[in-house]
Amino acid sequence: MTFKPISQAIDIEEVRHLSKLTGDCLEQKEKRDKELEAIIKGEDDRLLLVIGPCSSDNEAAVLEYAKRLSALQEKVKDRIFMVMRVYTAKPRTNGDGYKGMMHQPHIGEAPSLINGIKAVRNLHYRVITETGLTTADEMLYPENLSLVEDLVSYIAIGARSVENQQHRFVASGIDVPTGMKNPTSGNLSVMFNGVYAAQNKQSFLFNSQEVETSGNPLAHVILRGAVTEAGKYQPNYYYDNLVDTINQYEKMGLQNPFIIIDTNHDNSGKQYLEQIRIIRQTLINKAWNPKINQVVRGFMIESYLEDGRQDEARVFGQSITDPCLGWEKTDALIQEIYRTLGEQNGHS
């Protein structure tokens, strides 16, 4: 065996105790979780935005962003519900250099998983307790779910994980909305099979125990575009794509049909400014087709303090992974969405 332990076993309960929600903060999270569940079930017609940095690389910058987003959420709360992306295990796609806060709590320093876990929990905890927002994270490593499950209100399963049986089965035991992206090939059947597995009861081996799950009726799809064999980006947020995805939902008889459009990644070709156009076009499609309006009710947006990206962490609040919309454009976009929703529903 080539596996060599380099730290002591982690006491999960001890780590969780360091940043445990209590009192008013816990009540606020539970209230927002119920609101989010109602949105996924179609009982609340507000638009869902899962929004924030591609990767949460810097605690101070993420908290500054969260405070701005919280103030904006208050202004648009009657039409828009926002869950902040606090993605703490997200590395650079090719694995070059940065591997996410979970591995590297301090950029440029050696990896430290134990300190990383504490930093991850502390960041989610501070966003929730200091701003009143609730948070989303990506389940990159299913075995690490227990590290954040009591803090996180939304889980995403990425394009490279959605085909993995363990991710699907673990998703069936999650009790918050779980979005499952289409794979990079764009194969919708793979994604829908993942949602089917997540929505149903499963029995499997997890963290050295045989477990049973009850199924997650809040599992749903995220359309993030694809890449062709020739290496070209192939968006899947267009009108016909949405109709096809809704038809597949109906064909499979899945619970709580809900579609989120990932506005970056292969839908935008990682041209971050395209996120604005993609949202505008989708809102037009929602207004044109009642069925699309009923099912396509969320966007995933990559946004930070500064536009674009950088290779080295020199600019405060600028992404070191995928390029993001800066705050000024984010603020303007959300207020534009708010006005558009009002106009479409006959409100000033």
From TrEMBL:
The keyword Protease does not apply. It is an enzyme of class 2 (transferase). It comes from the Bacteria. Its EC number is 2.5.1.54. GO terms for biological process: amino acid biosynthetic process; aromatic amino acid family biosynthetic process; chorismate biosynthetic process. It catalyses: D-erythrose 4-phosphate + phosphoenolpyruvate + H2O = 7-phospho-2-dehydro-3-deoxy-D-arabino-heptonate + phosphate. One of its GO terms (cellular component) is cytoplasm. Residues 38-333 form the DAHP synthetase I/KDSA domain. Keywords: Amino-acid biosynthesis, Aromatic amino acid biosynthesis, Transferase. InterPro entries: Aldolase_TIM, DAHP1/KDSA, DAHP_synth_1. GO terms for molecular function: 3-deoxy-7-phosphoheptulonate synthase activity. Pathway: Metabolic intermediate biosynthesis; chorismate biosynthesis; chorismate from D-erythrose 4-phosphate and phosphoenolpyruvate: step 1/7. Gene3D superfamilies: Aldolase class I. Belongs to the class-I DAHP synthase family. Stereospecific condensation of phosphoenolpyruvate (PEP) and D-erythrose-4-phosphate (E4P) giving rise to 3-deoxy-D-arabino-heptulosonate-7-phosphate (DAHP). This is Phospho-2-dehydro-3-deoxyheptonate aldolase.
